[in-house]
């Protein structure tokens, strides 16, 4: 029986998450959904009363068989839905995450970056350059997003498998460095 | 002539509300499944399972040849993830499937495991 692992692909709506899943997955991206209940405070509600909101969160995913013993699942998080963060099962136990960014709407990636940083989930930022247009350098994006110097930033075109692979390898490289520093800390203690 | 009071399949949507399949349960009382818990049918049960829901039969059929993740089952059968988890819990109780949970959260991935994944990605 193989072991299953997962990598999340987050980022704003329309930034290319599904395209990325499709470019590396061995199966066509499938969609799955879950109903989650979130406590929310209504914006229009002057009393600020907390209510329960039930919402259906959908995300798509793909599969990469690494070996007979290892299967990697890629989960594209819902783009517009701010409730996916509440779906614990989606975010917990991920090997790492890709934050896909679009230079025209960098602010759409802030929430995901904060989320992964706060949870110590290794991640890389993939700057999706549609039509090969490179409107910013990796360094400019790093500064605009106020990223840790160790966080990889990769300019990519996720329609291309080779390019998506490069982004995944950057995430795994960040995960490896985190695992190595954990070992070093344990050895030093 | 078609009776206008009747909807065809496409207009009618689901015939059964998903949680009716689980008897109203939204989670299983004994078993915990994640999105990437893998399911395999047990081959030694070839007889007909007349007592099972069609959705449970579909899960057994899907997981006969290889290990399939809970998320994949939900995607293919167009069911909410929590419904699939409840059905799989019942199938596990009935000893009709075996399951493989992903590594524990407390068990951080090793450098060696990460490098195996990297090698696999390079070879795509």
UniProtKB/TrEMBL annotation, chain B:
It comes from the Bacteria. Pfam families: DUF742. InterPro entries: DUF742. This is DUF742 domain-containing protein. The lineage of its organism: Bacteria, Bacillati, Actinomycetota, Actinomycetes, Kitasatosporales.
